[in-house]
Specification:
2 copies of one chain form a homodimer. Chain A has 248 residues and is of the alpha+beta class. Chain A is 50% helix and 14% strand. Chain A contains 10 helices and 5 strands. Chain A has helices at residues 6-15, 19-32, 61-69, 77-84, 102-113, 145-172, 184-194, 199-206, 210-224, 229-238, and strands at 37-44, 52-57, 89-92, 118-125, 131-138. Chain A has a 5-stranded antiparallel β-sheet with strand order 2-1-5-4-3, with helices on both faces. In chain A, a hairpin with a 7-residue loop joins strand 1 (37-44) and strand 2 (52-57). Chain A starts with 5 loop residues before the first helix and ends in a 10-residue tail after the last helix. Chains A and B meet through helix 4, helix 6, helix 7 and helix 10 of A and helix 4, helix 6, helix 7 and helix 10 of B. Chain A binds a DNA duplex (30 and 30 nucleotides) through residues 183-186, 198-200, 208-212, 214-219, 221, 228-229.
Chain lengths: 248, 248
DNA sequence: TCTTCAACTGTAAGATCTTACAGTTACGCG
DNA sequence: CGCGTAACTGTAAGATCTTACAGTTGAAGA
């Protein structure tokens, strides 16, 4: 059934330079694998209370508006699932969801009114703390297994490349996501903070004065634009500035 | 070429209950897609300084031992790449790596002495902060494109299911990774700490006394088994106990 | 050579967190 | 009705972080 090779689609993503081009590639994936609609969304941990969201929507505008107005992200079972998992989720009006709450049932039935009846959602989580997902949707009441089996591997890979492409496009085009760099020493100081060490303890570990530890941590706070050490730790960990060590 | 369907392999993962069974499924993937060797590894952020590692190795034992003794995780370009990225990495002795350092060149040549010459590595990052990767390796000097194009989509999906299965097996079998639960209120308090708020500010936001904020944060520290608030924040963020909000 | 930057250091007042003490209230479950 | 649990509250001493002041040193690049 697929007329475009999976590799071709991925190359198309890599060479896309605008959101519109990405939209087109997603539409092609949809068509090729027998779905009518798609939507991509991602959440960037610029803040925990008010993160930054990116959407590329192939869903009906009316449904998107309704969705946003009702803050359906917290209800949508595909979002809830994908935020916690790494494997795809199949969904349709009935069988797939385990004991849906009335709220979720209402949500699914409303979606169906807009032609979003069944589909598959692919989650992605990045080392930089991004959460992204791509949903492919169909008007079919019940999910079509053979169709799914075909799109399953391709979709998972595609979604990873799609998110990578989105970040590339947004980092160059749309400004609000500025990446800062921490120096080696700053990361070292921060590492020991995440391990529960005090300034003094860290100074002994790194063999520098306590004042210098404070100095580096102050610089981190300035660079990250945060108001205290707790926020700096949260931001740095969430965005992958420091990762668990490989060295034992 | 693949004799086993991709879906069958994934079902085999889901029904596996031991590490040995997972090992067998990975071997089957290898065979089916024309690779000789595989290795799966994951890093669980139990601590930033000394995280917990899990390996399922289909690599020669001698090479594994040599690798561990030399702490090659910090040199291995596939690990370095996968720790930062979400898309697969193709590798072989020459072309694929951009300006390898002498250290990396030596590493690649040593690997080759053990029959690890080229291959593909699939990264996975989970919402719980796990980092995992699966490498499929071949003795071929130069990477075989048609072979790769076939395994690319399947490998990405398989790796996600593999990691899920590994966590399932380890959570039930091997004890050291005990998951704790934070209450709703505890998460709320922690959320505002990650946003840089003081105890007093948080108390105003949540409409409780400052003492109660302290109380919840103390409970979090006890539950997570950490020594202060910074470590609690780092651990909670790293392990996905709190995620950026979906509600605007 | 001049500039930039990482890395480093000291003092001190004030803000905030940590820890120890000792409780109350409301809810669900057996 | 007892038990466990989430959620809540007060006081106070001591530990730790934050912010303000004001710098030096060495290496890399223009």
């Amino acid at each position: 059934m697929p007329v475009t090779g999976c590799i071709d689609l991925i190359e198309a993503l890599s060479s896309a330079g605008t959101v519109d081009e990405l939209h087109t590639v997603c539409s092609r994936l949809c068509e090729d694998y027998g779905f009518e609609r798609f939507i991509y969304g991602s959440r960037i941990p610029t803040s925990f209370v008010k993160p930054y969201f990116i959407f590329i929507s192939g869903y009906p505008k009316a449904w998107r508006d309704h969705y946003t107005q009702n803050n359906y992200m917290v209800v949508d079972p595909t979002v809830v699932y994908c935020a916690e998992n790494i494997t795809p989720m199949l969904w349709d009006g009935r069988s797939v969801l385990h004991d849906p709450t009335p709220e979720v049932q209402r949500f699914m039935s409303e979606a169906q009114d807009f032609g979003i009846s069944s589909g598959i959602s692919f989650p992605v989580h990045s080392a930089q703390g991004d959460f992204a997902m791509l949903s492919l949707a169909s008007e079919l009441q019940v999910i079509n297994r053979p169709m799914i089996d075909q799109v399953l591997p391709v979709g998972q890979l595609f979604t990873a490349y799609l998110h990578e492409a989105v970040r590339r496009v947004f980092d160059s085009d749309v400004l609000p996501l500025t990446r800062v760099e921490l120096t080696q020493r700053e990361k070292e100081c921060l590492l020991w903070v995440t391990e529960g060490k005090t300034n003094w303890e860290t100074s002994r570990i790194l063999n520098i004065s306590e004042r210098t530890v404070v100095f580096h941590l102050q610089n981190i706070q300035t660079k990250l634009g945060v108001s205290n050490r707790h926020q700096a730790v949260a931001r740095a960990v969430a965005q992958g500035f420091i990762q668990p060590q490989f060295t034992q």
